[in-house]
Amino acid sequence: MYKILIADDHPLFREAIHNVIADGFPGSEIMETADLDSALELTQSHDDLDLILLDLNMPGMHGLGGLMNLRNEAPTIPVVIVSAEQDKQIVLQAITYGAVGFITKSSPRAQMTDAIAQILDGNVYLPPDIIRSQKSGSSRQHHDHHSIAPELLQALTRKQLLVLERMTKGESNKQIAYSLDIAETTVKAHVSAILRKLGVHNRVQAILSAGDIDFASYLRR
DNA sequence: CGGGCCTGACTAACCATACC
DNA sequence: GGTATGGTTAGTCAGGCCCG
């Protein structure tokens, strides 16, 4: 059957999840770790894992950073975040960083089984209330409780700010090149410089770091 | 000179299509 | 099934231009 890794530092919660899986998916091979490092090690020796259940508040995780590490080390293994948190923005960021689902620890047992089944089927699972609020709330309000790196933005040149602003709007390098009237390769060069100055490794991380920056106020200078 | 800006050449990864 | 191939995108690198 399935081969599943539970990565959570709470023994009681590991046991609970273990039971849920054992009941819902009989015959599955279940492994457990209590910190990120040992989880990373396990993915090296078991690249045939079908799923990793990853706790966000585990030693070595640093929030979503641990998810990125795991995705880098074992990009082929699906990862679902299991967390007590239910903040909409964190859930969406987890998906952006490559998680295939998000299960809240407050979920009833049947819902957890259903969620795991969906994800093993290749679907994406999100908490129902997140989906609902996504659908109804076309007025997106980012609660900017962790607006990062205003001081890092100071290090960016004016042109780099312009490029980053377009990046946050989801434009591709080609679109940015067109709207700023420069070559696409030039945009790539600016993007590279932005990634380096912000200390990140791809444009998604850069966009998340930029958060809800008010570009206009920076560009006014 | 040095830094910002611009560019072409290049590689890696992904994805769809065609073909065997 | 698998795999070859062409297209697109992201990103790096080396180098040239301009200006204080």
TrEMBL record:
Record has Amino-acid biosynthesis as a keyword: no
Molecular function terms from GO: DNA binding
Segments passing through the bilayer: none
Gene3D superfamilies recorded: 3.40.50.2300
Entries under InterPro entries matching the protein: CheY-like_superfamily (IPR011006), EvgA-like (IPR051015), NreC/VraR/RcsB-like_REC (IPR058245), Sig_transdc_resp-reg_C-effctor (IPR016032), Sig_transdc_resp-reg_receiver (IPR001789), Tscrpt_reg_LuxR_C (IPR000792)
SMART domains: HTH_LUXR (SM00421), REC (SM00448)
Presence of keyword Zinc: no
Domain of life: Bacteria
One Pfam family here: GerE
UniProt keyword annotations, A-Z: DNA-binding, Phosphoprotein
One GO BP annotation of this record: phosphorelay signal transduction system
The protein's name: Two component transcriptional regulator, LuxR family
Native organism: Ectopseudomonas chengduensis
